[in-house]
Amino acid sequence: MTYDPASDVIGDRSKSPQPRPHDDRAPKFTPPPFGPSLHSKAYRMDDHFRSTANPSTSKDHPTKSQPVAAAQPSVVADVWQMYQRGELEKCHQMLRVGNRRVEDIHDHESLELLGLILHDLGKPYDAADAIERASLLAPIRDETRIALASCYAQLRRIDLARELYLQLALQRRLPANLMLQIAAGLEATDAAELAMTVCEWVTEDHPGHAQAFYDMGFYNARSGQPLYVTEAFTREAVRADPGNLHYRIGLISLLIQMQRDDEALEIFSSVSPDQIGEVTCSGCLDRIASMLRRRHQPELADRCERQRDSIRLNHPAESD
Q1: Could you give the CA distance from residue 214 to residue 33 in angstroms, rounded to a whole number?
Q2: CA 309, CA 303: separation in Å to the nearest integer?
Q3: Taking a C-beta distance cutoff of 8 angstroms, is the pair 70, 59 a contact?
Q4: Among 24, 42, 205, 249, which is least packed by CB within 10 angstroms?
Q5: pTM recorded for the entire structure
Q6: Are 140 and 149 in contact (CB under 8 A)?
């Protein structure tokens, strides 16, 4: 049995990187993996900056008529903090005070931060412009380079995006969460095998990294490889982090598609009725509900269907 590209076999990966496109020109990205820096909103670099941001100082606060516009150090620091809290629109307003254009901003810290904000707001063209301008003034963070690669991918500059992702990955010096973001970016540029390689590097450096194994299973399925290999990676993720509900739901969903209801039902028995409300994959819930009805458990099936309908109603773009 091989992966059915019309269905997410191993479950929801919406806890993690690629930004959702805001126009028809952008390719549709599969939401990246679970993890502390990968979540159900569009891919946002602020998750990593929650622990690493260290705003530098900049120059005087600009007015619209000044030829060199730079935010005051205190303003930049405040915006970084708001960015880490996810207050994107407010951040954007503070950096674009007076409706100044990107080309009117000349300190690299403000440009880099503005680029990240625009990226997270789903404006890849403007984000890439800001980040490229920042890189001409000073070296930019690796996290920002990942965001730039993401922008290129959304703008269909696929070769450039893939090259930038690979430049970052081949160094093999980035923390695991950033390596997994790179892997997700590579998969979004139709390079699932390269994404698997990056995940393998993570498991070599961090043998018990559950998310890396889970993602390897996803990329294995995406590349059309047999599902028993995906199963092996997914089971390894569950062994490494048995308390992770999303990994267990992904494994259950996979087993159902492999027509192994008995095993799926056994694992599902470890999921409490209340935990069904925490599941974020509507496709998984649909499959589980069908299995439960086959096994004459209508009450649990009803719970799964209610959660599925809630996800599809409230988060239609993130369903399945």
Answers
A1: 8
A2: 10
A3: yes
A4: 24
A5: 0.73
A6: no
Amino acid identity, position 203: T
> Concatenated DSSP letters for 172-236?
--S-HHHHHHHHHHHHHTT-HHHHHHHHHHHHHHSTT-HHHHHHHHHHHHHTT-BHHHHHHHHHH
For residue 134, give the H/E element and its range.
Answer: helix 124-137
DSSP annotation of 166 = H
- Rounded CA-CA distance 142/77 in Å is 19
Tens-digit pLDDT profile for the chain (320 aa)?
A: 433 433 455 555 544 333 333 333 233 333 333 332 332 233 344 444 444 444 333 333 333 334 334 555 567 787 777 887 888 888 787 776 545 566 667 778 888 888 898 999 899 999 999 999 999 999 999 999 999 999 999 999 999 999 999 999 998 999 999 999 999 999 999 999 999 999 999 999 999 999 999 999 999 998 888 999 999 999 999 999 999 999 999 999 999 999 999 999 999 999 999 999 999 999 999 999 999 999 999 999 999 999 999 999 887 665 55
Question: CB 89: neighbour CB atoms within 10 A?
Answer: 10
The Cα–Cα gap between 151 and 36 comes to: 22
